[in-house]
Design brief:
Elements: H1 3-9, E1 13-15, E2 26-29, H2 35-46, E3 55-58, H3 62-70, E4 76-79, H4 85-93, E5 98-112, E6 122-123, H5 124-131, H6 142-145, E7 155-159, H7 164-173, E8 185-187, H8 190-199, E9 203-208, E10 220-221, E11 224-225, E12 230-231, H9 235-239, E13 247-255, H10 256-259, H11 265-274, H12 277-283, H13 291-300
Parallel strand pairs: 1-13, 2-3, 6-11, 7-8, 7-9
Antiparallel strand pairs: 4-13, 5-9, 5-10, 5-13, 11-12
Length: 309
Amino acid sequence: MNFRQCARAIGFSVLAGLSGAAHADLKIAGSDTLEAFMQNALSQFKRSEGASIPVTTSFKGSSAGLRDLCEGRTAIVPASSRIDSENQRRCDTAKIGYMELPIAFDAIVVIANPARAALGELNLDELKAIFHPDSAGKVLRWRQVRASLADTPLSVVSLDTKSGTNAFFGGKVHGLAGFVRSDAKVSSQHADILRMVAADPNAIGFVSMGALADSRAEVWKVPINFGNGPVMPSREAVLNDSYAPLSRLMYLYVSKAALAEKDGHTLLFVAWLMERAGRLASYEGFVRLTEANYQDNLRKLPARNSTKP
């Protein structure tokens, strides 16, 4: 199934249950990959329909946000990957209902210091050798990745284990979602990954495509050879599936209980966002879905009443 088919097949799923009073703040927790997207959306929302609505946010990773959702602590989770089986079990046990709405396409971009441009490209076996957790303390030189490369130190930089981006990348590259080399330099922030790679001539890491949109860090985007020649991460490569192993859908998870609250805050914001998500996605460096996808998300939401918050 390609990305266009996925976008048609997957609907917004509503997450359940805010703890606390019915007139709670608009509570959002989730992916740091989508932090700029959400903050931009909230800034515009607060200048229009949401001017009187209190908002609390936390962007500590998709896994952390989904756990908050399934434990009733948040209503909206922007997630850079689909809900994992552990959090699904939490939601099932707690009888938390949720909706899952796709909001944009993304690609994982392998970045290296510009001094590594002699690499030319990397294939999936080479990425596995670099990033596999079992390579810690073993694959320490670039020549161990490819015999023709210089015998210089290899410096691995990674997002942390709470990152949905890390879980997705690990699952695709070495099959161990959510694990990191013990000798890697680790951060929860894409901006830190970019800075660390730019500062170290031996470094390699990975970030979301969106993280590169307004970054001034001097890094080299590594072409990846998936078996049919090197492919650069781009909007076109995402849409034509040539970058498919490292392309993904990102989602908004929303509590069904929060959508049904009398104050209407969650429903108002989610509907407002779906009407503008494509433009916001493009602005933040992601790849927008079709308008039909966003309209399908809107149709899945409960009807709004005429009461303004």
